[in-house]
Amino acid sequence: MSTVETPQEARPRRGRASAFAKALGRFLFAAVTTYFGLLAVTFFIGRVVPIDPVLAILGDRAPNHVVERVRQEMGFNLPLYQQFFIYIKGILSGDFGNSVLTTNPVMVDIRRAFPATVELATLGTLIGAFVGVPLGVLAAVRRGSIADQVVRVIGLIGYSVPIFWLALISLVIFYAQLRWVAFPGRIDIVFEYTFTPITGFYLLDSAWQGQWDVFYDVFRHIILPASLLGYFSLAYISRMTRSFMLNELSQEYIVAARAKGLSETRVIWGHALRNAAVPLVTVIALSYAGLLEGSVLTETVFSWPGIGLYITNSLQNADMNAVLGGTIVIGTVFIGINLLSDLLYRTLDPRTRNR
């Protein structure tokens, strides 16, 4: 027997859909506004810095008539607002210009470098989440104990110690002294010309192709920088997990669950952590975005051929097309992850569905 939905039953569903559509519109408007703000900032930075892009291409000894001709071809003789519209049009079409350093289109270089950063940041975030969440739960459950103090000190060190200093110390200990990890870089030169990546993610590609010797070599290269990024991610995630868990453990439903005779393990992991996981998803997503944009020093110390090292080398060689292109890509990814985390939070938390 079929049932017909009454208007009273359909009205709340339509209301939730309308609320979600309005929230999605607000999020998209904020994301688009932020993105165009990013484009405006990068455009004016490119015009303010004391670097002539024409001379960066031609060199200081180029004849004046050649410099002026190239300047006209690149549109630098146009009014500033026209240059801005040309800049926006090029960015939206994926044209960041050519790199002075590599002579390749900037987007080609970014496509080659960005998977390395994503692979490094992903592994670092996984380490930070899988270690940071249990530590945060432990600190919250044993509030005021020695375990709580140890976890808080670990987090404080993660916030305080410069990552480049810790990276150098780690290289001295784990590479120079113990020989547990490989030399800085992404892959040994023995495999560099024999291994053909498919997706650009070396761990995934080597495992997919069954080249376990390459997989082991890549793992020995990535584990130390990923662990360092994971440690800094852990410091943030454990601190926020502790805060969320303390808030949940003080709620009345926890008291009721304990009064029913539920085990402490089920109360903590099955009830408190489940509710704390909703805002924790946003924390982990933002931590991941932070590692994507903040791994410049780590990539530089470990010679990791990612977007951070690419931007650093380009900046040292006054390659502003590459610097601005890399900045825009990282900013776009950060905006996208932030948007997705907001939508995911709204989807998971029933309290926000009707707002």
TrEMBL record:
<dbReference type="InterPro" id="IPR035906">
    <property type="entry name" value="MetI-like_sf"/>
</dbReference>
<feature type="transmembrane region" description="Helical">
    <location>
        <begin position="153"/>
        <end position="176"/>
    </location>
</feature>
<dbReference type="GO" id="GO:0071916">
    <property type="term" value="F:dipeptide transmembrane transporter activity"/>
</dbReference>
<keyword id="KW-1133">Transmembrane helix</keyword>
<keyword id="KW-0472">Membrane</keyword>
<dbReference type="Pfam" id="PF19300">
    <property type="entry name" value="BPD_transp_1_N"/>
</dbReference>
<feature type="transmembrane region" description="Helical">
    <location>
        <begin position="23"/>
        <end position="45"/>
    </location>
</feature>
<dbReference type="GO" id="GO:0005886">
    <property type="term" value="C:plasma membrane"/>
</dbReference>
<feature type="domain" description="ABC transmembrane type-1">
    <location>
        <begin position="114"/>
        <end position="345"/>
    </location>
</feature>
<keyword id="KW-0812">Transmembrane</keyword>
<feature type="transmembrane region" description="Helical">
    <location>
        <begin position="218"/>
        <end position="237"/>
    </location>
</feature>
<dbReference type="Pfam" id="PF00528">
    <property type="entry name" value="BPD_transp_1"/>
</dbReference>
<feature type="transmembrane region" description="Helical">
    <location>
        <begin position="272"/>
        <end position="291"/>
    </location>
</feature>
<feature type="transmembrane region" description="Helical">
    <location>
        <begin position="120"/>
        <end position="141"/>
    </location>
</feature>
<feature type="transmembrane region" description="Helical">
    <location>
        <begin position="322"/>
        <end position="345"/>
    </location>
</feature>
<dbReference type="InterPro" id="IPR045621">
    <property type="entry name" value="BPD_transp_1_N"/>
</dbReference>
<dbReference type="InterPro" id="IPR000515">
    <property type="entry name" value="MetI-like"/>
</dbReference>
<keyword id="KW-1003">Cell membrane</keyword>
<protein>
    <submittedName>
        <fullName>ABC transporter permease</fullName>
    </submittedName>
</protein>
<comment type="similarity">
    <text>Belongs to the binding-protein-dependent transport system permease family.</text>
</comment>
<keyword id="KW-0813">Transport</keyword>
